[in-house]
Amino acid sequence: MDQFDEAVEAYDEVMDRFGDDPTPEIRELVASALLSKGLMLSQTDQLDEAAELYDEVVARFGDDPTPEIRELVAMAMVTRYITLGELSQIEDAAELYDEVVARFGDDPTPKIRELVATAAEYMSESLE
Q1: pTM
Q2: Exposure string for 5-29, b = 16+ CB within 10 A, e = fewer
Q3: End-to-end alpha-carbon separation of the chain, Å?
Q4: How far apart are CA 94 and CA 83, in angstroms?
């Protein structure tokens, strides 16, 4: 648990120190820190807090054309979508699924295509 707390502090420090830096490489690191913190919170069943971080990634970086950041945004959206399903917020999850497909369904990036496929698989499983 000490390492968890230290990791959260490190992610917070990255966001505090570099959150407004316009440099593409730094923006990628900040987006990655937000996403990583959300994933850690998800692993400790802090799903609501994690969902807020996924939303923040999309809000802050959703329009960024950089492939690496687009991948992080797609990952945040898909992870948020799965989190909504785990929270039994099915209607919200379905809306977010549609948004993921609309935004990334035709993306040529292999990792993003894989994320969209993961979302589709999760959707089909939740309908069963």
Answers
A1: 0.89
A2: eeeeeebeebbeeeeeeeeeeebbe
A3: 37
A4: 12
Q: Are 56 and 80 within 8 A, CB to CB? A: no
CA atoms within 13 A on the CB side of 62: 13
Q: Work out the angle at residue 54's Cα, subtended by the Cα atoms of residues 50 and 59, and round it to the nearest 5 degrees.
A: 140
User: Nearest-CA neighbor of 35 among 85, 69, 82, 86?
Assistant: 69
> For the CA atoms of the chain, what is the radius of gyration?
15
Tokens standing for 36? 């990583």
Condensed to tens digits (0 to 9), the pLDDT of residues 57-86 reads 999 999 999 999 999 999 999 999 988 888
Instruction: With beta carbons less than 8 A apart as the criterion, state whether 81 and 97 touch.
Output: yes
pLDDT, residue 1, reads 52
Distance CA 82, CA 118 (A): 10
